[in-house]
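Protein Record: Sequence and Backbone Structure Tokens
======================================================
Scope: a single protein chain, as residues and as a discrete description of its fold.
Tokens: labelled as protein backbone structure tokens, with as many entries as the chain has residues.
Position: the record begins directly beneath this header, with no further notes in between.
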Amino acid sequence: MTTALLLHRADGAPLSTAFRQAAFGKVDPFAREREIAWEGPGAMSAGRIGFVGEVDVAHYPHTEAIVVVEGELGLVANGAAPRVLRKGEGAVIARGTALRIQAASRAKLVFCAAAAELPSQPGITPLRADADFKPSRSLPPEVLLGPAPQCRSDNVFKDELSGFQAGTWDSTPYHRIVRAHRQNEFMVLVDGGVRFASPDGSVLAAHAGDAIFVPQGVSVGWESSERVAKFFVVQEVALSA
């Protein structure tokens, strides 16, 4: 049974998630380094990358959020100042972006990528822990096992073609029932911790620095006892009957 998938543990603990080495598309710039943990409807994929060296990309072939979990990664887009992502920092690379990717020593990344046939507006959009948070929708009372949380978000990227949305989100503590997840969701916890409950009663605990992917339709619960902040990517797709 598929549940929440751990893509990275900040404390270096071993993962039970299965990864397979594979490219994401025919011209993937990370083809030799990419390890996929999940791929499914909506041409979305999530996993991890270990990269060292330098590669020039004339047109980035898909839209991808990356977060550095170890080392440093340089991104140099045409016409923009070089950007260095350090541990705990992330960015969204839009389809069609021309850039150079470089790492002097091995960098470890987690990723969530989505494909589409048409190009989007090229560029690199940072994911920021010190986000410009604005109040966002809370949860409906019928799914809560306690007080309603106060939620905030900073939605910095949206691609209408693939349904790929990314940003930073935070919330006060809350407890939610086990229910079908409404979207594909990639998250990297920036602050706090979460306990993800499965229908069989098992619990997956995640903490700051951990990366998780929850596929749409998977039954999972949420329980937090402190403020939680996360980078996120979400995508809602039409599931076959």
